[in-house]
Amino acid sequence: MKTIHCSACRCVVTNNEVALNIKLLGKQIATVRCYACLAKALDCTVEDLHEKVAFYQSMGCSVFKEIYTTEQHTS
Ligand SMILES: [Zn+2]
Fold first, then answer.
1. Helices of type H across 1-75
2. Nearest Cα to Cα of residue 2 among 13, 41, 59
3. Cα–chain-centroid distance for residue 3?
4. How far, in Å, from the CA of 40 to the mean position of ligand 1?
5. How far is the CA of 57 from the centre of ligand 1 (A)?
6. What is the 60 CA–ligand 1 centroid distance (Å)?
7. DSSP summary character for residue 44
8. What single-letter DSSP state applies at residue 40?
9. DSSP bridge pairs for 5
10. How confident is the prediction along the chain (75 residues), in pLDDT tens digits per residue?
């Protein structure tokens, strides 16, 4: 079991959040941020990030198929 925390607010991040960080910022797991903090850093909205995740997943992006953390939102 592995839990990854947001490097900014320390909240627990989900697998998709880790994958999005890698996709947008490169493989720097140490500086992974949650959607809220990532949106602030990138000056976009959390909805924009959700759309990006959905887009990459629909493309079958391999980054989003990897398991980085066992943490999952129940949505
Ligand atoms: Zn955060």
1. 15-25, 35-42, 46-58
2. 13
3. 13
4. 9
5. 22
6. 26
7. S
8. H
9. 12
10. 689 999 999 999 999 999 999 999 887 667 899 999 999 999 999 999 999 999 999 999 999 999 998 876 554
